[in-house]
Specification:
The complex is a heterodimer of chains A (297) and B (271). By secondary structure, chain A is mainly α. Chain A has 13 helices and two strands, in the order ααββααααααααααα. Chain A has two domains: 53 residues, no CATH class; 224 residues, MetI-like (MetI-like fold), CATH 1.10.3720. In chain A, 77% of the residues lie in helices and 1% in strands. Chain A has a two-stranded antiparallel ribbon with strand order 1-2. In chain A, helix 4 packs parallel to helix 8. By secondary structure, chain B is mainly α. Classes of the chains: A mainly alpha (297), B mainly alpha (271). Chains A and B meet through helix 1, helix 2, helix 4, helix 5 and helix 6 of A and helix 1, helix 3, helix 4, helix 5 and helix 6 of B.
Protein backbone atom coordinates (compact mmCIF):
# COMPACT_ATOMS: atom_id res chain seq x y z
CA UNK A 1 0.00 0.00 0.00
CA UNK A 2 2.68 2.43 1.06
CA UNK A 3 4.83 1.61 -1.98
CA UNK A 4 1.84 2.24 -4.22
CA UNK A 5 1.52 5.72 -2.82
CA UNK A 6 5.21 6.51 -3.33
CA UNK A 7 5.28 5.20 -6.90
CA UNK A 8 2.16 7.18 -7.65
CA UNK A 9 3.81 10.26 -6.19
CA UNK A 10 6.95 9.43 -8.15
CA UNK A 11 4.95 9.15 -11.32
CA UNK A 12 3.38 12.50 -10.60
CA UNK A 13 6.78 14.12 -10.21
CA UNK A 14 8.03 12.61 -13.47
CA UNK A 15 4.92 13.85 -15.21
CA UNK A 16 5.35 17.36 -13.81
CA UNK A 17 9.01 17.37 -14.77
CA UNK A 18 8.20 16.14 -18.29
CA UNK A 19 5.48 18.77 -18.60
CA UNK A 20 7.68 21.63 -17.51
CA UNK A 21 10.42 20.44 -19.87
CA UNK A 22 7.93 20.24 -22.70
CA UNK A 23 6.70 23.76 -22.09
CA UNK A 24 10.18 25.24 -21.99
CA UNK A 25 12.10 24.49 -25.19
CA UNK A 26 14.86 26.90 -24.11
CA UNK A 27 15.43 24.91 -20.95
CA UNK A 28 15.54 21.69 -22.99
CA UNK A 29 18.08 23.23 -25.32
CA UNK A 30 20.20 24.43 -22.41
CA UNK A 31 20.19 20.98 -20.85
CA UNK A 32 21.17 19.42 -24.18
CA UNK A 33 23.98 21.81 -24.96
CA UNK A 34 25.61 22.58 -21.60
CA UNK A 35 27.77 19.47 -21.24
CA UNK A 36 28.96 19.19 -24.86
CA UNK A 37 29.69 22.90 -25.13
CA UNK A 38 31.61 22.88 -21.86
CA UNK A 39 33.70 20.09 -23.35
CA UNK A 40 34.19 21.45 -26.85
CA UNK A 41 34.05 25.20 -26.44
CA UNK A 42 35.74 25.53 -23.05
CA UNK A 43 38.14 22.59 -22.92
CA UNK A 44 38.99 22.26 -26.60
CA UNK A 45 38.64 25.78 -28.01
CA UNK A 46 40.09 27.11 -24.76
CA UNK A 47 43.26 25.06 -25.12
CA UNK A 48 43.52 25.96 -28.79
CA UNK A 49 43.21 29.65 -27.95
CA UNK A 50 45.88 29.41 -25.26
CA UNK A 51 48.14 27.61 -27.72
CA UNK A 52 47.79 30.34 -30.32
CA UNK A 53 48.34 33.06 -27.76
CA UNK A 54 51.45 31.24 -26.57
CA UNK A 55 52.83 31.49 -30.11
CA UNK A 56 53.41 35.16 -29.23
CA UNK A 57 55.36 34.32 -26.10
CA UNK A 58 59.04 33.47 -25.88
CA UNK A 59 61.22 31.10 -23.92
CA UNK A 60 64.17 31.70 -21.72
CA UNK A 61 67.00 30.14 -23.74
CA UNK A 62 68.75 28.84 -20.61
CA UNK A 63 65.91 27.26 -18.69
CA UNK A 64 63.47 26.59 -21.56
CA UNK A 65 60.82 28.16 -19.34
CA UNK A 66 58.04 29.99 -21.16
CA UNK A 67 58.27 33.76 -20.70
CA UNK A 68 54.86 35.37 -21.03
CA UNK A 69 55.92 38.54 -22.80
CA UNK A 70 54.10 39.52 -25.97
CA UNK A 71 56.32 39.51 -29.05
CA UNK A 72 56.12 38.55 -32.69
CA UNK A 73 59.69 37.21 -32.70
CA UNK A 74 58.57 33.64 -33.37
CA UNK A 75 56.71 34.59 -36.52
CA UNK A 76 59.57 36.79 -37.62
CA UNK A 77 61.91 33.85 -37.18
CA UNK A 78 59.48 31.61 -39.02
CA UNK A 79 59.61 33.67 -42.18
CA UNK A 80 63.27 34.65 -42.12
CA UNK A 81 65.00 31.41 -41.15
CA UNK A 82 65.86 29.58 -44.38
CA UNK A 83 65.34 26.12 -42.84
CA UNK A 84 61.83 26.96 -41.70
CA UNK A 85 60.92 28.52 -45.04
CA UNK A 86 62.28 25.50 -46.87
CA UNK A 87 60.40 23.01 -44.72
CA UNK A 88 57.14 24.95 -45.02
CA UNK A 89 57.44 25.09 -48.81
CA UNK A 90 58.36 21.41 -48.92
CA UNK A 91 55.34 20.47 -46.80
CA UNK A 92 52.94 22.45 -48.99
CA UNK A 93 54.60 20.91 -52.06
CA UNK A 94 54.15 17.40 -50.67
CA UNK A 95 50.49 18.11 -49.88
CA UNK A 96 49.89 19.43 -53.41
CA UNK A 97 51.75 16.53 -55.04
CA UNK A 98 49.75 14.01 -53.01
CA UNK A 99 46.52 15.76 -54.01
CA UNK A 100 47.35 15.74 -57.72
CA UNK A 101 48.49 12.10 -57.62
CA UNK A 102 45.33 11.09 -55.76
CA UNK A 103 43.13 12.86 -58.32
CA UNK A 104 44.96 11.27 -61.27
CA UNK A 105 44.74 7.76 -59.80
CA UNK A 106 41.22 8.17 -58.41
CA UNK A 107 39.61 9.26 -61.66
CA UNK A 108 39.89 6.05 -63.70
CA UNK A 109 39.02 3.94 -60.65
CA UNK A 110 35.94 6.05 -59.88
CA UNK A 111 34.94 6.14 -63.54
CA UNK A 112 35.07 2.38 -63.66
CA UNK A 113 33.17 1.82 -60.40
CA UNK A 114 30.52 4.42 -61.22
CA UNK A 115 29.85 3.97 -64.93
CA UNK A 116 31.64 1.02 -66.50
CA UNK A 117 31.23 -1.77 -63.94
CA UNK A 118 27.97 -3.73 -63.98
CA UNK A 119 25.40 -2.00 -61.73
CA UNK A 120 25.10 -5.17 -59.67
CA UNK A 121 28.75 -4.94 -58.67
CA UNK A 122 28.89 -1.23 -57.89
CA UNK A 123 27.88 -1.28 -54.19
CA UNK A 124 30.41 -4.02 -53.57
CA UNK A 125 33.12 -1.99 -55.30
CA UNK A 126 32.31 1.01 -53.07
CA UNK A 127 32.78 -1.20 -50.03
CA UNK A 128 36.06 -2.39 -51.52
CA UNK A 129 37.19 1.24 -51.72
CA UNK A 130 36.03 1.97 -48.17
CA UNK A 131 37.45 -1.05 -46.38
CA UNK A 132 41.12 0.03 -46.41
CA UNK A 133 40.08 3.27 -44.67
CA UNK A 134 39.42 1.16 -41.61
CA UNK A 135 42.69 -0.69 -41.69
CA UNK A 136 44.98 0.92 -39.16
CA UNK A 137 46.78 4.01 -40.40
CA UNK A 138 50.01 2.85 -38.85
CA UNK A 139 49.75 -0.62 -40.36
CA UNK A 140 49.30 0.87 -43.83
CA UNK A 141 52.40 3.03 -43.41
CA UNK A 142 54.21 -0.03 -42.06
CA UNK A 143 53.15 -1.95 -45.18
CA UNK A 144 54.89 0.67 -47.30
CA UNK A 145 57.94 0.49 -45.09
CA UNK A 146 58.04 -3.24 -45.87
CA UNK A 147 57.51 -2.64 -49.60
CA UNK A 148 60.16 0.07 -49.88
CA UNK A 149 62.78 -1.46 -47.61
CA UNK A 150 65.96 -2.82 -49.08
CA UNK A 151 65.27 -6.06 -50.93
CA UNK A 152 61.54 -5.52 -50.38
CA UNK A 153 58.68 -5.90 -52.82
CA UNK A 154 59.46 -2.68 -54.74
CA UNK A 155 63.06 -3.71 -55.35
CA UNK A 156 61.96 -7.20 -56.34
CA UNK A 157 59.38 -5.91 -58.84
CA UNK A 158 61.74 -3.39 -60.41
CA UNK A 159 64.78 -5.69 -60.53
CA UNK A 160 63.87 -7.28 -63.92
CA UNK A 161 63.98 -3.78 -65.44
CA UNK A 162 67.37 -3.11 -63.95
CA UNK A 163 65.90 -0.59 -61.51
CA UNK A 164 65.61 -0.45 -57.75
CA UNK A 165 62.88 0.99 -55.51
CA UNK A 166 62.93 4.63 -54.40
CA UNK A 167 64.08 3.67 -50.89
CA UNK A 168 63.14 5.88 -47.95
CA UNK A 169 62.92 9.61 -48.58
CA UNK A 170 60.70 12.32 -50.01
CA UNK A 171 59.31 10.24 -52.95
CA UNK A 172 58.48 7.41 -50.54
CA UNK A 173 56.64 9.90 -48.32
CA UNK A 174 54.57 11.25 -51.20
CA UNK A 175 53.80 7.71 -52.37
CA UNK A 176 52.72 6.51 -48.94
CA UNK A 177 50.58 9.58 -48.24
CA UNK A 178 48.92 9.15 -51.64
CA UNK A 179 48.12 5.57 -50.73
CA UNK A 180 46.73 6.58 -47.34
CA UNK A 181 44.34 9.26 -48.56
CA UNK A 182 43.36 7.83 -51.96
CA UNK A 183 39.92 6.53 -50.82
CA UNK A 184 38.98 10.06 -49.69
CA UNK A 185 39.44 11.16 -53.32
CA UNK A 186 37.83 8.15 -55.02
CA UNK A 187 34.60 8.34 -53.06
CA UNK A 188 33.45 11.89 -53.90
CA UNK A 189 34.40 11.42 -57.57
CA UNK A 190 32.52 8.14 -57.65
CA UNK A 191 29.43 9.79 -56.19
CA UNK A 192 29.56 12.67 -58.67
CA UNK A 193 30.03 10.37 -61.67
CA UNK A 194 27.23 8.14 -60.49
CA UNK A 195 24.84 11.09 -60.27
CA UNK A 196 25.79 12.41 -63.70
CA UNK A 197 22.53 12.30 -65.74
CA UNK A 198 22.85 9.92 -68.68
CA UNK A 199 20.79 12.18 -70.95
CA UNK A 200 23.43 14.92 -70.74
CA UNK A 201 25.95 12.47 -72.13
CA UNK A 202 23.49 11.37 -74.79
CA UNK A 203 22.79 14.99 -75.74
CA UNK A 204 26.50 15.63 -76.09
CA UNK A 205 26.85 12.57 -78.32
CA UNK A 206 23.80 13.63 -80.39
CA UNK A 207 25.43 16.99 -80.98
CA UNK A 208 28.36 15.14 -82.51
CA UNK A 209 30.85 15.05 -79.65
CA UNK A 210 33.09 12.03 -79.37
CA UNK A 211 33.89 10.45 -76.02
CA UNK A 212 36.98 12.61 -75.52
CA UNK A 213 35.11 15.84 -76.19
CA UNK A 214 32.16 14.82 -73.98
CA UNK A 215 34.63 14.04 -71.22
CA UNK A 216 36.34 17.44 -71.48
CA UNK A 217 33.25 19.59 -71.93
CA UNK A 218 30.56 17.77 -69.94
CA UNK A 219 31.95 15.24 -67.49
CA UNK A 220 34.99 17.11 -66.21
CA UNK A 221 33.26 20.42 -65.36
CA UNK A 222 30.54 18.58 -63.46
CA UNK A 223 32.94 16.40 -61.51
CA UNK A 224 35.49 19.09 -60.69
CA UNK A 225 33.72 20.29 -57.50
CA UNK A 226 33.92 16.74 -56.15
CA UNK A 227 37.61 16.57 -56.95
CA UNK A 228 37.95 19.80 -54.97
CA UNK A 229 35.96 18.27 -52.11
CA UNK A 230 38.22 15.24 -52.06
CA UNK A 231 41.28 17.45 -52.25
CA UNK A 232 40.30 19.07 -48.95
CA UNK A 233 41.03 15.75 -47.26
CA UNK A 234 44.11 14.76 -49.24
CA UNK A 235 45.62 18.21 -48.83
CA UNK A 236 44.93 18.88 -45.17
CA UNK A 237 45.66 15.33 -44.01
CA UNK A 238 49.01 15.39 -45.82
CA UNK A 239 49.92 18.80 -44.48
CA UNK A 240 49.48 17.83 -40.84
CA UNK A 241 51.16 14.45 -41.05
CA UNK A 242 54.46 13.82 -39.34
CA UNK A 243 54.30 10.09 -38.54
CA UNK A 244 54.50 8.80 -42.11
CA UNK A 245 57.54 10.91 -42.87
CA UNK A 246 59.25 9.54 -39.78
CA UNK A 247 58.64 5.97 -40.92
CA UNK A 248 59.34 6.12 -44.65
CA UNK A 249 60.83 9.59 -45.11
CA UNK A 250 64.43 8.90 -44.16
CA UNK A 251 65.83 12.24 -43.04
CA UNK A 252 63.10 14.31 -44.69
CA UNK A 253 61.50 16.93 -42.45
CA UNK A 254 57.99 18.38 -42.76
CA UNK A 255 56.23 21.04 -40.67
CA UNK A 256 54.92 18.40 -38.27
CA UNK A 257 58.44 17.23 -37.46
CA UNK A 258 59.55 20.78 -36.71
CA UNK A 259 56.58 21.27 -34.40
CA UNK A 260 57.35 17.99 -32.68
CA UNK A 261 61.04 18.71 -32.20
CA UNK A 262 60.31 22.14 -30.68
CA UNK A 263 57.70 21.09 -28.12
CA UNK A 264 60.06 20.19 -25.31
CA UNK A 265 62.50 23.07 -25.56
CA UNK A 266 60.53 25.89 -27.11
CA UNK A 267 56.77 25.51 -26.84
CA UNK A 268 56.00 29.03 -28.16
CA UNK A 269 58.00 28.29 -31.31
CA UNK A 270 56.20 24.95 -31.69
CA UNK A 271 52.89 26.80 -31.36
CA UNK A 272 53.93 29.34 -33.98
CA UNK A 273 54.98 26.52 -36.32
CA UNK A 274 51.69 24.78 -35.59
CA UNK A 275 49.71 27.80 -36.79
CA UNK A 276 51.27 27.42 -40.26
CA UNK A 277 49.35 24.28 -41.35
CA UNK A 278 46.18 25.65 -39.76
CA UNK A 279 46.45 28.94 -41.68
CA UNK A 280 47.34 27.17 -44.93
CA UNK A 281 44.39 24.78 -44.54
CA UNK A 282 41.99 27.65 -43.79
CA UNK A 283 43.25 29.52 -46.89
CA UNK A 284 42.84 26.35 -48.93
CA UNK A 285 39.29 25.91 -47.64
CA UNK A 286 38.44 29.51 -48.51
CA UNK A 287 39.82 29.02 -52.02
CA UNK A 288 37.89 25.76 -52.42
CA UNK A 289 34.69 27.31 -51.11
CA UNK A 290 34.52 29.49 -54.22
CA UNK A 291 34.10 26.34 -56.32
CA UNK A 292 31.09 25.36 -54.23
CA UNK A 293 32.79 22.09 -53.35
CA UNK A 294 32.19 22.38 -49.63
CA UNK A 295 28.46 21.97 -50.14
CA UNK A 296 29.04 18.52 -51.56
CA UNK A 297 31.09 17.34 -48.59
CA UNK B 1 28.59 8.32 -73.13
CA UNK B 2 29.63 5.79 -75.73
CA UNK B 3 33.04 4.50 -74.88
CA UNK B 4 35.06 2.73 -77.49
CA UNK B 5 36.20 -0.81 -76.82
CA UNK B 6 39.74 0.37 -76.24
CA UNK B 7 38.59 3.02 -73.76
CA UNK B 8 36.60 0.42 -71.83
CA UNK B 9 39.55 -1.95 -71.70
CA UNK B 10 41.86 0.88 -70.67
CA UNK B 11 39.50 1.93 -67.86
CA UNK B 12 39.10 -1.65 -66.70
CA UNK B 13 42.88 -2.11 -66.59
CA UNK B 14 43.33 1.23 -64.84
CA UNK B 15 40.75 0.39 -62.20
CA UNK B 16 42.19 -3.09 -61.79
CA UNK B 17 45.62 -1.58 -61.21
CA UNK B 18 44.10 0.91 -58.79
CA UNK B 19 42.47 -1.82 -56.73
CA UNK B 20 45.70 -3.82 -56.85
CA UNK B 21 47.60 -0.84 -55.45
CA UNK B 22 44.98 -0.51 -52.70
CA UNK B 23 45.06 -4.16 -51.64
CA UNK B 24 48.59 -5.41 -52.33
CA UNK B 25 50.12 -3.61 -49.31
CA UNK B 26 47.45 -5.07 -47.01
CA UNK B 27 47.98 -8.58 -48.40
CA UNK B 28 51.72 -8.11 -48.01
CA UNK B 29 51.23 -7.42 -44.30
CA UNK B 30 49.25 -10.63 -43.97
CA UNK B 31 51.83 -12.72 -45.82
CA UNK B 32 54.72 -11.09 -44.00
CA UNK B 33 53.35 -12.22 -40.62
CA UNK B 34 54.15 -15.76 -41.79
CA UNK B 35 57.67 -14.81 -42.87
CA UNK B 36 60.20 -16.94 -40.92
CA UNK B 37 62.91 -14.33 -41.61
CA UNK B 38 63.31 -11.15 -39.55
CA UNK B 39 63.99 -9.01 -42.61
CA UNK B 40 61.27 -7.82 -44.96
CA UNK B 41 62.99 -8.99 -48.14
CA UNK B 42 60.73 -10.33 -50.85
CA UNK B 43 59.94 -13.10 -51.55
CA UNK B 44 60.01 -14.64 -48.06
CA UNK B 45 62.15 -17.80 -47.80
CA UNK B 46 59.18 -19.79 -46.53
CA UNK B 47 56.05 -19.61 -44.41
CA UNK B 48 55.68 -20.30 -40.72
CA UNK B 49 53.02 -19.83 -38.05
CA UNK B 50 55.65 -19.65 -35.33
CA UNK B 51 55.54 -15.88 -34.86
CA UNK B 52 51.81 -15.95 -34.25
CA UNK B 53 52.27 -18.07 -31.15
CA UNK B 54 55.22 -15.91 -30.09
CA UNK B 55 53.07 -12.78 -30.49
CA UNK B 56 50.20 -14.20 -28.44
CA UNK B 57 52.55 -14.43 -25.47
CA UNK B 58 54.18 -11.04 -25.99
CA UNK B 59 53.30 -9.12 -22.82
CA UNK B 60 54.08 -5.68 -24.25
CA UNK B 61 51.68 -6.10 -27.16
CA UNK B 62 48.98 -7.61 -24.95
CA UNK B 63 49.22 -4.82 -22.42
CA UNK B 64 49.10 -2.21 -25.18
CA UNK B 65 46.05 -3.89 -26.67
CA UNK B 66 44.29 -3.79 -23.31
CA UNK B 67 45.12 -0.08 -22.84
CA UNK B 68 43.80 0.63 -26.34
CA UNK B 69 40.55 -1.17 -25.62
CA UNK B 70 40.06 0.71 -22.34
CA UNK B 71 40.83 4.07 -23.97
CA UNK B 72 38.53 3.27 -26.89
CA UNK B 73 35.64 2.24 -24.66
CA UNK B 74 36.01 5.31 -22.44
CA UNK B 75 36.25 7.72 -25.36
CA UNK B 76 33.33 6.05 -27.14
CA UNK B 77 31.11 6.27 -24.06
CA UNK B 78 31.78 10.00 -23.66
CA UNK B 79 31.43 10.62 -27.40
CA UNK B 80 28.10 8.78 -27.48
CA UNK B 81 26.63 10.95 -24.76
CA UNK B 82 27.99 14.31 -25.94
CA UNK B 83 27.56 13.61 -29.66
CA UNK B 84 23.94 12.55 -29.20
CA UNK B 85 23.15 15.61 -27.07
CA UNK B 86 24.52 17.97 -29.74
CA UNK B 87 22.78 16.04 -32.50
CA UNK B 88 19.41 16.46 -30.78
CA UNK B 89 20.05 20.14 -30.13
CA UNK B 90 21.06 20.82 -33.74
CA UNK B 91 18.41 18.66 -35.41
CA UNK B 92 15.41 19.44 -33.20
CA UNK B 93 15.94 23.07 -32.20
CA UNK B 94 16.55 26.33 -33.95
CA UNK B 95 18.85 28.68 -32.12
CA UNK B 96 21.39 31.41 -32.60
CA UNK B 97 24.82 29.96 -33.39
CA UNK B 98 23.58 26.58 -34.58
CA UNK B 99 25.98 26.56 -37.53
CA UNK B 100 28.83 27.51 -35.22
CA UNK B 101 28.06 24.53 -33.00
CA UNK B 102 28.21 22.10 -35.91
CA UNK B 103 31.46 23.76 -37.00
CA UNK B 104 33.09 23.42 -33.57
CA UNK B 105 32.19 19.72 -33.50
CA UNK B 106 34.10 19.08 -36.74
CA UNK B 107 37.11 21.18 -35.75
CA UNK B 108 39.01 18.58 -33.67
CA UNK B 109 39.12 16.22 -36.64
CA UNK B 110 39.67 18.92 -39.27
CA UNK B 111 42.75 20.42 -37.64
CA UNK B 112 46.05 18.54 -37.83
CA UNK B 113 46.35 16.01 -35.01
CA UNK B 114 49.58 17.54 -33.78
CA UNK B 115 47.87 20.92 -33.19
CA UNK B 116 45.06 19.30 -31.20
CA UNK B 117 47.67 17.22 -29.41
CA UNK B 118 49.91 20.00 -28.18
CA UNK B 119 46.92 22.23 -27.36
CA UNK B 120 45.47 19.55 -25.08
CA UNK B 121 48.90 18.69 -23.72
CA UNK B 122 49.63 22.22 -22.54
CA UNK B 123 46.07 22.65 -21.26
CA UNK B 124 46.35 19.48 -19.18
CA UNK B 125 49.73 20.67 -17.97
CA UNK B 126 48.42 24.01 -16.74
CA UNK B 127 44.99 22.92 -15.46
CA UNK B 128 45.44 19.39 -14.14
CA UNK B 129 48.96 19.39 -12.76
CA UNK B 130 48.24 21.95 -10.01
CA UNK B 131 45.36 19.64 -9.00
CA UNK B 132 47.80 16.77 -8.67
CA UNK B 133 46.44 14.90 -11.67
CA UNK B 134 49.14 13.89 -14.13
CA UNK B 135 48.85 12.62 -17.66
CA UNK B 136 47.57 9.06 -17.80
CA UNK B 137 44.87 6.91 -19.29
CA UNK B 138 42.29 9.48 -18.22
CA UNK B 139 43.82 12.24 -20.34
CA UNK B 140 44.08 9.88 -23.33
CA UNK B 141 40.34 9.21 -23.01
CA UNK B 142 39.58 12.94 -22.83
CA UNK B 143 41.72 13.60 -25.91
CA UNK B 144 40.19 10.77 -27.92
CA UNK B 145 36.63 11.66 -26.92
CA UNK B 146 37.17 15.19 -28.24
CA UNK B 147 37.60 14.03 -31.83
CA UNK B 148 35.22 11.05 -31.55
CA UNK B 149 32.23 13.30 -30.77
CA UNK B 150 31.94 14.31 -34.42
CA UNK B 151 31.56 10.68 -35.56
CA UNK B 152 28.60 10.02 -33.27
CA UNK B 153 27.17 13.45 -34.04
CA UNK B 154 27.30 12.85 -37.82
CA UNK B 155 25.57 9.51 -37.57
CA UNK B 156 22.83 10.59 -35.18
CA UNK B 157 22.14 13.94 -36.83
CA UNK B 158 21.80 12.22 -40.22
CA UNK B 159 19.25 9.83 -38.74
CA UNK B 160 17.30 12.58 -36.95
CA UNK B 161 17.09 14.64 -40.12
CA UNK B 162 15.51 11.72 -41.93
CA UNK B 163 12.98 10.96 -39.20
CA UNK B 164 10.31 13.59 -38.71
CA UNK B 165 9.67 15.01 -35.26
CA UNK B 166 5.99 14.28 -35.83
CA UNK B 167 6.45 10.72 -34.50
CA UNK B 168 7.34 12.12 -31.10
CA UNK B 169 4.48 14.61 -31.30
CA UNK B 170 2.08 11.81 -32.11
CA UNK B 171 3.29 9.86 -29.07
CA UNK B 172 2.76 12.87 -26.86
CA UNK B 173 -0.68 13.52 -28.32
CA UNK B 174 -1.50 9.99 -27.23
CA UNK B 175 -0.53 10.93 -23.68
CA UNK B 176 3.14 9.96 -23.46
CA UNK B 177 5.42 12.22 -21.42
CA UNK B 178 8.60 13.62 -22.97
CA UNK B 179 10.61 10.82 -21.37
CA UNK B 180 8.18 8.10 -22.42
CA UNK B 181 8.14 9.41 -25.99
CA UNK B 182 11.93 9.38 -26.02
CA UNK B 183 12.22 5.86 -24.64
CA UNK B 184 9.51 4.30 -26.79
CA UNK B 185 9.70 6.27 -30.02
CA UNK B 186 12.82 8.36 -30.49
CA UNK B 187 15.40 6.02 -29.02
CA UNK B 188 14.42 2.97 -31.10
CA UNK B 189 14.61 5.19 -34.19
CA UNK B 190 18.18 6.32 -33.51
CA UNK B 191 19.44 3.12 -31.89
CA UNK B 192 21.19 1.71 -34.95
CA UNK B 193 22.75 5.11 -35.73
CA UNK B 194 24.11 5.15 -32.17
CA UNK B 195 25.54 1.68 -32.60
CA UNK B 196 27.16 2.54 -35.90
CA UNK B 197 28.50 5.84 -34.56
CA UNK B 198 29.83 4.16 -31.43
CA UNK B 199 31.55 1.48 -33.44
CA UNK B 200 33.16 3.96 -35.80
CA UNK B 201 34.22 6.16 -32.87
CA UNK B 202 35.84 3.16 -31.18
CA UNK B 203 37.66 2.25 -34.38
CA UNK B 204 38.92 5.82 -34.74
CA UNK B 205 40.15 5.92 -31.16
CA UNK B 206 41.73 2.48 -31.49
CA UNK B 207 43.73 3.70 -34.49
CA UNK B 208 44.78 7.12 -33.18
CA UNK B 209 48.44 7.83 -32.57
CA UNK B 210 49.18 11.56 -32.73
CA UNK B 211 46.83 12.87 -30.03
CA UNK B 212 47.74 9.83 -27.93
CA UNK B 213 51.43 10.74 -28.08
CA UNK B 214 50.69 14.06 -26.42
CA UNK B 215 48.05 13.03 -23.91
CA UNK B 216 49.41 9.71 -22.63
CA UNK B 217 51.27 9.71 -19.37
CA UNK B 218 54.41 7.68 -18.71
CA UNK B 219 53.74 3.95 -18.90
CA UNK B 220 50.51 4.36 -20.84
CA UNK B 221 51.10 2.72 -24.19
CA UNK B 222 48.30 2.13 -26.69
CA UNK B 223 48.67 -0.42 -29.45
CA UNK B 224 49.56 2.13 -32.19
CA UNK B 225 52.21 3.64 -29.92
CA UNK B 226 53.57 0.17 -29.21
CA UNK B 227 53.76 -0.60 -32.95
CA UNK B 228 55.43 2.73 -33.65
CA UNK B 229 58.02 2.20 -30.92
CA UNK B 230 58.81 -1.38 -31.97
CA UNK B 231 58.63 -0.96 -35.73
CA UNK B 232 62.29 -0.08 -36.14
CA UNK B 233 63.61 -2.74 -33.75
CA UNK B 234 64.71 -5.77 -35.83
CA UNK B 235 64.35 -7.97 -32.74
CA UNK B 236 60.63 -7.19 -32.48
CA UNK B 237 59.87 -7.22 -36.22
CA UNK B 238 58.12 -10.63 -36.30
CA UNK B 239 55.76 -9.70 -33.46
CA UNK B 240 55.02 -6.32 -35.06
CA UNK B 241 54.25 -8.18 -38.29
CA UNK B 242 51.71 -10.39 -36.54
CA UNK B 243 50.07 -7.47 -34.70
CA UNK B 244 49.83 -5.57 -38.00
CA UNK B 245 48.24 -8.60 -39.68
CA UNK B 246 45.70 -8.92 -36.86
CA UNK B 247 44.76 -5.24 -37.23
CA UNK B 248 44.25 -5.69 -40.99
CA UNK B 249 41.95 -8.64 -40.34
CA UNK B 250 40.04 -6.76 -37.61
CA UNK B 251 39.38 -3.76 -39.87
CA UNK B 252 36.83 -5.78 -41.81
CA UNK B 253 34.53 -5.89 -38.77
CA UNK B 254 33.56 -2.21 -38.43
CA UNK B 255 32.91 -1.80 -42.12
CA UNK B 256 30.78 -4.95 -42.19
CA UNK B 257 28.71 -4.04 -39.16
CA UNK B 258 28.31 -0.40 -40.18
CA UNK B 259 27.20 -1.52 -43.63
CA UNK B 260 24.57 -3.76 -42.12
CA UNK B 261 23.36 -1.20 -39.61
CA UNK B 262 22.69 1.67 -41.92
CA UNK B 263 23.54 2.58 -45.45
CA UNK B 264 24.32 6.22 -44.73
CA UNK B 265 26.96 5.61 -42.07
CA UNK B 266 29.53 3.87 -44.20
CA UNK B 267 30.01 6.78 -46.54
CA UNK B 268 29.84 9.48 -43.88
CA UNK B 269 32.11 7.32 -41.77
CA UNK B 270 35.35 9.04 -40.97
CA UNK B 271 34.55 12.44 -42.22
Amino acid sequence: MATDVTTAAGRGTVRRLAGSLHRRPRLRLTLLLTAPLLWLAVLYLGSLAVLFVSAFWTTNSFTSQVVKVWSTDNFHELFTTPVFRQVILRSVGVALAVTVLCAVIAFPVAFYTARVARPRWRPLLVVAILTPLWASYLVKVYAWRLILSEGGLADWMLAPFGLSGPGFGLPATVLTLTYLWLPYMILPIHTALEQLPANLLDASADLGARAGRTFRSVVLPMVLPSVAAGSVFTFSLSLGDYITVQIVGGKTQLIGNLVYSNIELNLPMAAALGTVPVVVIVLYLLAIRRTGALNSL
Amino acid sequence: MHLSRTARIALRTGAGLGFAVIYVPLLLVLVNSLNPDRSASWPPPGLTGRWWSVAVHNSGARQALWVSVKAGLGATAIALVLGTLIAFAVARHRFFGRDTVSFIVVLPIALPGIVTGIALNSAFGTVLEPLGVGLGLFTVIVGHATFCIVIVFNNVVARLRRTAASYEEAAMDLGATTFRAFADVTFPLVRSALLAGGLLAFALSFDEIVVTTFTAGPGIETLPIWIFDNMTRPQQAPVVNVVAAVLVLLSVIPIYVAQRLSADTATSSRV
